[in-house]
Amino acid sequence: MKTIISLLLFLASLSQAGSQTITGNPEVSLSSDCYIPWARVDNCLVGTEGYCTCNLNQPSGRVLWVRSDGSLANQQYTDSSSKLIVTSSSKINNETFTCVWESALGKQNAQTFNVLYPKGPTTTSLRALGVRETFDLCPAKSNSITVVCEVPKDAVYPKPWFHFTVNGSRPVYDWYSGDLVNGVYRYNQTIKVERGGDLSVYCWPGNSCTRSLSSIEKTLKITVREPPSNYPEITIDGKTYTGIDSSAVNVQEGTRLTVSCKVSGGMPAVKEVTLTCGAQQKKSSSGGLATLSFNASRKSLTRPLCSCRASHVTGCYDKQTFVRLNVAV
User: Fold this and answer.
1) What are phi and psi of 153, to 5 degrees?
2) What is the pLDDT of residues 76-90, one digit of tens each?
3) Are 119 and 44 a contacting pair, CB within 8 Å?
4) Residue 172 has pLDDT above 60, yes or no
5) Residue 275 belongs to domain with CATH number
6) Is 50 a domain residue?
7) Same domain, yes or no, for 319 and 257?
8) Number of compact structural domains in the chain
9) 148's torsion region: left (phi>0), alpha (psi -120 to 50) or beta?
10) Cβ pair 73, 65 in contact under 8 A
C-alpha cells in the first residue's frame, strides 16, 4: 500500500512539473548528513538504522529513492528532498540506492548511495606452522613461531581484521588486514620466542566496519622447552668447577672424596645427570644432581679426570664440565 501511495504522489508531482518553468537541467545532490552511525568504513551500517537525504536544486517535481530493482525504498518526503531510511539486513551484503528526479520532458539525474550490511565473523581458526603442542628453543634452531589466524569468506562481510596478543599482555600485534586465499581470509603473525615456559597466543578476528572484537576468539597454547644455559657444576670438597678447568685438584692417595655434579635451569629440568670420575660413574635417577664417593688412588683413577654431562628433553644440551685430579702418593 505504501509503495502505491508513493507512486501516486510521484506521478502527481510530474503533472505539476509539466506546468512549471524548468531553468536548466534539474540536479540532485546528497546532503552532508548522509552517514551511518559509528561506521569505520564509509556507508557501513553498524547500528540498526542509517539515513541519507537527497535534495533537488529547483522546486519542480519530486525526488525519490529507488532500489536497484526499481522498487521504492523506505523514505520520508518533503517539498524538494527525500530522506532515505536504511535498516540492517541479514539477507544481503550490500545494497545500492539511487536518488532520481524525472521532469515532464523525461530528463533524469541521479545520485547513488551504497550501503554495506556487515556480518560476522562467525567462526575462526588458529594454528602454528610446524608446531603442535611443544616448541624446542635450541641455540642452533630458529626462535620464531609463525601462527596463522583464518576466517572463511562466507563467515564475514566485509573483510575481517585480525588482533593478536601473547600471554595476555598488552598487544604488540594490533589490527591487521588478512589476505584472501582460496576462499579464506588469512593472516600470518611471526612471534619471537625468548624463553621457555607456557606460551598462549590469542587471535580475535573483528569486522573491518567496526573493528570491534568478536566473541569467537581462539587461543593457542604451546609449551616452549628450553635447555639450561649454564654448564654443569662439579663440586669437590666445597669448591665448584664449571666448563673445562685448566687447573688440577691435588689430593693425597687414599683420601676419601665426595664429588657431586648438578645442572640447574632449563624448562623443564634436565632428565638425567651423568658424573664420571675415572672408572666410576654415577647417573642421577631423577632431578639434576649426581654424587660419587670414593677413595682416591692412582689405581682406581686410571684416567684422572672427572666429567659431568646431562640430557635434556630437547636433545640440544651439549655442555660438559671437566676437572683433572692429581693423586699424590
Assistant:
1) -60, -40
2) 988 788 899 998 887
3) no
4) no
5) 2.60.40.10
6) yes
7) yes
8) 3
9) beta
10) yes
- Are residue 35 and residue 61 in the same domain, yes or no? yes
15-40 residue pLDDT tens:
333 333 334 556 778 877 676 554 54
> What is the Cα–Cα distance from 79 to 178, expressed in whole angstroms?
47
Task: Read off the pLDDT of each residue in 223-234 and give the average, rounded to a whole number.
Answer: 96
> For residue 274, which of 240, 229, 321 has the smallest C-alpha distance?
321
Nearest to 55 by CA among 36, 83, 87, 76: 83
Q: What mean pLDDT, rounded, does the chain reach?
A: 82
Which pTM was predicted? 0.73
Examine the domain organization and report whether 259 and 243 are in the same domain: yes
Helix (H, G, I), strand (E, B) or coil at 7: helix
79 or 8: which leads in pLDDT:
79
| CA 67 – CA 114 distance, rounded (Å) | 10
Residue identified by cell 530522506 is 83
Q: Which residue has the cell 506546468?
A: 19
The whole domain housing 110 covers 27-115
